[in-house]
What does this fold into?
Amino acid sequence: MIDLGISKIALIGAVALIVIGPEKLPRVARTVGALLGKAQRYVADVKAEVNRSMDLEELKKMKDTVESAARDVESSVQTSASDFEKSWSEATAGLEDSASGTDALNSWTPPPPEYRHPKKNFRLKQKAVPQWFKARTGTRTRAQSGAARVARFRPRSRPVQ
It folds into this structure.
């Protein structure tokens, strides 16, 4: 890349001031700045697109490896399942021939559910808090007027000695 130091930038600025003139120099500087910004954005977009395409290629490769591994696992499961079915059919072949008591096992039905009477006192409050819990936590159980509350919590006066 171009190595621009402070001295080189000052020299370019002095030459531009002489060649372009002090009236047109701010407008030219804005135009050059805008063009440089557009160029930087274009380069950043190109870099991002290249990175996305590289990531996409890596994801495609990873997808292919995962799919091949899944196919291998599926085939091994299918072969083991067929082996299991064969061994199961061999093991149960003798049981099916001598199944004299299977009718009694297959004819069993569960008993019907028991009848439960609905609650008689449905008007009673079901979620009432017990008195012992109210006493333990300090919950007020009786309403008290403001004057009674002040009188209750007023500090007791000491007798004069």
Remarks:
- The chain is about 65% helix and 0% strand.
- Residues 122 and 128 are 13 Å apart (CA to CA).
- The helical segments are 6-20, 25-97, 102-106, 131-137, 146-153.
